[in-house]
Specification:
alpha/beta; Spore Coat Polysaccharide Biosynthesis Protein SpsA, Chain A; eight-stranded mixed beta sheet; 11 helices
Amino acid sequence: MLKFSTVIITKDRPQYLLHCLTAITAQSIIPHEILIVDNSVSKQTRDLFKLFKERTRLPLRYVHTTEKGFPSLRQKGMNLATYDWVNFIDDDCVVAPNYFFEAQKTLQKNLDAVAILGSSATFFPRQTPAVLKNFIDLVWKKNAIDSDNIITDLEILDDKNVLLNKIFLQKNHIYYDTSRTRFLGASQDNDLGMQIQVHHGKAIYNPKMKVLHKDFVTWKKYYAKLIQYTLAHNNYEKKWTSIRSELRLNQKKRFAQLTFLPKYLSQKQLTPLQKIAFLFHLATSFLVVKFVKVYALL
């Protein structure tokens, strides 16, 4: 069995972390190490760590840091992780019951991989903003994965649900871009994925390696996050557009295919009025993205 570390980044969300760790205790396979990187102001997270350390079988480690920005925090977690494979999940994620079993199985079958990406669904299936955020995430990833679950465009890597080969990253001097701290870390995973891609790293997708993510449930927070992400991604594109062109990676082609939208909506627990709101805000989201991109050029 290959050993790996799980790193959880957290900041002043002890209730979220409690739910995250509780879900891990129910797993059939437990990671060999769970490293909590705590950026909190209060001591509640440290107290929660001590409680789980005393009362569960989880192989927990804890580090508190005042470093700013998620890229720095993730890189710290990567550097401190004991094992060659490092799994990142966020404190607002709840892993499916067979999550680590699926991770281990995929590792054993793909020893030449550098990254293994899992799937994400929303923890709030009856909240329209959360369902829309999940849909956009699916569109973002859908056409970058081939029929054999090999990821063809590594910018879709998602660091709330990924396994990374630490040895490959260190050997090729691949690190989280700490300059992205000014964007609160948004697009840090896209940037890391592109670094792996230019070094010809292989990435695998396992849809059964699933997390439920606690997305925003208000439109105000949804649009605030959308604007932040668009500004961050615009900066990311300036760095990588020419290289992506050389590699013939086409992001726009992925977004041109929305044919699975009717099927997606039919499977969701939304009322007719919520579905209308979903479609309205989907169209509005594309307009907001275009406006922010134009604004960024001024």
